[in-house]
Amino acid sequence: MTFAETEKIELKQKLTDALPKEIVAFLNTDGGTIYIGVDDGGSVSGVKNLDESLKKIADMIESQILPNSSHFIELGTKFIENKHIIEIKVRKGKSLYYIKKYGRSAQGCFVRIGTTCRSMTEEQINIVYNKYLDSKVKITEIPIRAKNLTFQYLKLLLTEKGFSINETTFAENFHLLTKDGDYNKMAELLADKNETSIKVVRFKGKEKADGIALRNEYGEKCLVIAMKQAFDYCIDVINETHTSFTKGVRKDKKLFDCDAFREVWFNACLHNNWADGTPPAIYAYTDRIEIISTGGLPANLSKEDFFRGVSKPVNEELAKLFIRLDLMEQTGYGIPLVTRRYGKTVFEFLDFFLRVTIPFEFELENSQNDTQDDTQADTQADTQEKAFDDWIEEQIKKNPKITTEELAKKSGKSVITIKRHIAKLSHIKYKGSGYSGHWEVNE
């Protein structure tokens, strides 16, 4: 076995009092392994008094490092070249770790940068500590002032999936109440009317400074509906098709991969730090599309686990609802799917944000000439939406047992688009469940 220092490996010829800060650095970064009894050049010198050294290390971990980190550290030994060495495996922790003697200060907090252990600045300490505090706040525990929320959109979506709705226990069953019985932040996000607004912004060029071509906002309604509307716009409008002919053979190329975008966008809405009230956003340029969500990498998840597809939702109850609505799966295939298509470099982990940049297959023409008055565009869109709403209502009146799949086929739209429009029509209700149910229209 050969040894060399890397971002994840620290070599120490002998046990010293500096060991706790090396452990803290790995806890605060992405984990790693410390070998004691190996010099900087990788030569094995061994450890004398092995049992005594192991006991001393265990005492250091227990008495000198806060908060308790024993669950993330594994002590072991190896016998190499007829010599014993100590192996300390450290996983990324779930908090901000520091040397007890110095507290949460530059003298007590460390991170791993390259092959060295560095002190954190006061600013870094505040950023990381506040991030971990925010991650502990669950949206199901944050009370809101609103008392008269309605959930017609959400109930319709659940009914279409075959779930029976008990009006008496609905809010409790879907974790929309705090322990004190008040509506919580999750209830606000899923209510028919709220103040959350998701932005999809198209820029004229490759930079924001080039100016805005079009700004769409989807919100002040159930989060599931708003995020689907934003998704539909990106897939139906932004995701253009480039057609080419080679030796008489037609080849169509989409601007970006729909499945990869879907995984990134729905995950951004799920894992967003809704506790601070900032919704995720989509920014489209002429050469790429960016999805930004707040919260960054979850505190209890390393980058390695993230890219492996390990799922540890920040908003657990919201994740359960998304699964029920078939918006996501528990298989953890989403992130690996994105990295297979675009690589790991599309993910950028910032202190308070996670940015995913999906490059386009071809560059769009500068959209300077496509800019139109926002008010006129909104009016046209509203007119088209209303006409399609009326068409759906007419089809349902003709055939109360018509399915969303049949409506999609007749209209040439996606099933998601059909469901979005029906959810807006509060006077149309689905009675029963599954294919045995039927639509009722209250005039």
Characteristics:
single chain; 443 residues; alpha+beta; Methyltransferase, Cobalt-precorrin-4 Transmethylase, Domain 2; Heat Shock Protein 90; 3 domains; six-stranded mixed beta sheet; four-stranded mixed beta sheet; 18 strands; 35% helix
CATH class of the largest domain equals Alpha Beta
Structural class: alpha+beta
What is the topology, as strand order, of the major beta sheet?
Answer: 10-9-13-14-16-15
* Low-confidence blocks of residues: 367-374
Instruction: Estimate the mean pLDDT confidence.
Output: 87
Largest sheet: 6 strands, mixed
Helix content: 25-40%
| Number of helices, where a helix is a run of at least 4 consecutive DSSP H or I residues | 14
Q: Provide the CATH topology of the largest domain.
A: Heat Shock Protein 90
Whole-number total of structural domains: 3
**What portion of residues belong to β-strands?**
15-25%
How far apart, in Å, are the first and last alpha carbons? 78 Å
| Radius of gyration, CA atoms, in whole angstroms | 27 Å
Strand tally, please?
Answer: 18
Taken from the alpha-carbon principal axes, the silhouette is: elongated
Do you know the CATH architecture of the largest domain?
A: 2-Layer Sandwich
